[in-house]
Design goal:
single chain; alpha+beta; Alpha-Beta Plaits; four-stranded antiparallel β-sheet; 4 helices
Length: 96
């Protein structure tokens, strides 16, 4: 069963955050990310939601425990006071 992480947070500057995010693609691959999405709030472009899909819950939790990822979030200007994360089990997916 796939696990989806959904991260909701505020960033200081979206464009600066996105450059750092794009720079950690190898960390994502190495951490088991098989799919991702970056979403922005329509009324607040510095409010960001990111989803990552993993093949297992263990991979998802281990990914967010990496110090390299925590360091990247700090460098990217993530407001950790706004940081929220959910781990969700995929029940169904598909195109309609």
């Amino acid at each position: 069963m796939r696990t989806l992480s959904m991260v909701h947070h505020r960033v200081a500057d979206f464009d600066a955050w996105k450059q750092v995010y794009d720079g950690v693609v190898d960390v994502q691959r190495g951490g088991g990310v098989v799919f991702h999405q970056v979403l922005r709030d329509q009324s607040d472009p510095n409010m960001v939601v990111v989803t990552h899909s993993f093949d297992s819950s263990e991979e998802a939790h281990a990914f967010f425990d990496q110090q390299e990822l925590k360091d990247a979030m700090q460098k990217a200007g993530v407001d950790m006071g706004s940081f929220q994360i959910w781990f969700l089990d995929e029940v169904e997916s598909g195109n309609l």
